[in-house]
Amino acid sequence: MKKYIFTFFCFLFFGFTGFSQYTIKTVPNPKLTGLGFVSNPDAILNNAEVDSLNAMIQKVEDSSKAQIAVVVLRSIGDIVPKNFATDLFNYWHVGDSEKDNGLLILLVMNQHRVEFETGYGIEGILSDAKCYDIQQKYMIPEFKTKNYGQGIIKGVKAVTNIFLTKSEEIKPTEEMQVNNTNNLYNNNSYSENIPKYSSWKNNDILIFYITFSIFSTFIFLILLFVALLKKDFFIRYQLMRIFRLYFWFILIPVPFVGIYFWVRYLTDKWRDTPRISAKTGKIMHKLTETEDDKFLKKGEVAEETVKSIDYDVWISDEKDDVLIQKYKRWFSKYNACPKCKYKTYYKVYDKVIKSATYSSSGKGERLYKCTNCGFSKKTTYTIPKKTRTSSSGSGSSSWSGGSSSWSSGSSSSWGGGSSGGGGAGSSW
Ligand SMILES: [Zn+2]
């Protein structure tokens, strides 16, 4: 139960942040979504620009099997674009697995940065210096005047010319096409869309947030209603327990800052309300934390000691009835012990014994121990090899480690290439 709730909140949290920032795992992979070579989730490029890019890149792939990925993102948070480009390149495996001839072009709008990430196989024809030249000559001037689609098209044109004709020169006829494209769609350029675009985005988040807040408050009211119908204070407490978590008022300050403190007050009161013995119908009294130990099993005392579970022991005045009630802690590093079953089992350490290298996998070790029965377990695990091919081209084994989702030959995935960080970047 705890795990589900935790996952739910993680999902919510990342749902919120996911609106504006991308990680390499959340960037839509155009190869998987059937959108060709261009990932444009924030609609910074218009459809005509994307089509034009796809057509140019397709020609290159058809003739030389080289692959070019274009990724245009509004924000990647504080991550350095170069690192993001390298990681994304290797996550998608752009380029043919044997020739390693992939190129990833990344634009990060709010960092005003363009990055070229090259596979080993194309560093010969598309050197870091050449990448930089293309950015400076064809892309940055356009980006400075907020013609993002135009800048990317020109940059990709220069690159595809290198692949196809070994010269990046854009011929006047091609320049015309590029310019025409720009003129046709100039009204749609990113710069003019900014106010509309961001307000739409913000509204969307706001609507989602308000809906979620109203929904949560509604759930709260229903649970409260159900709880108040119950005579048993222990059941009432358990029903409302989830609203004792402070992240409610961090997540939804209105109205949960009030609800939170009220629920805490209420549930604490319920927890302390004298219980009635089911056997005798008489009132019972709660023992103090030290008094109650003699009514608890050794494992239960151990759980109280590590604070994974708290027990309340209620006893009737005639000592003819004892009631033990169990309050689990929401977040505890202790889990159920495989041997004694008490929640006193935890991870003592998790360490790397042997680091992974580009040529061999590494080894790690974890130690678990139970504070109650003393049971311990040591497990070792394999750390996968670092992903990168050696520049001599012999290291194809380093990325062939089992994933088939990007196996070559299929148009629905990238080819399996990798990058060791070649390429260049420019700011505008
Ligand atoms: Zn144990």
Write the SSE topology.
Blueprint: H1 2-17, H2 30-33, E1 38-39, H3 47-64, E2 67-73, H4 81-92, E3 102-108, E4 113-118, H5 128-144, H6 148-165, H7 172-185, H8 190-229, H9 233-240, H10 247-251, H11 253-272, E5 284-286, H12 298-305, E6 309-316, E7 322-328, E8 345-354, E9 362-370, E10 376-383, E11 422-427
Parallel strand pairs: 1-2, 2-3
Antiparallel strand pairs: 3-4, 4-11, 5-6, 6-7, 8-9, 9-10
Helix pairs in contact: 3-6, 5-6, 6-7, 8-9, 9-11
Please give a structural write-up.
The chain has 428 residues and is of the alpha+beta class. The chain has a domain at 2-188: Diaminopimelate Epimerase, Chain A, domain 1, CATH 3.10.310.50. The chain is 42% helix and 17% strand. The protein contains 12 helices and 11 strands. The strands form 3 sheets. A 5-stranded mixed β-sheet has the order 1-2-3-4-11, with helices on both faces. α5 (128-144) packs antiparallel against α6, α6 (148-165) packs antiparallel against α7 (172-185) and α9 (233-240) runs antiparallel to α11 (253-272). It is elongated and about 100 Å long. The two termini are 50 Å apart. Residues 14-18, 179-198 and 390-411 have low confidence and may be disordered. It binds zinc ion. The site of zinc ion has 10 residues, from loops.
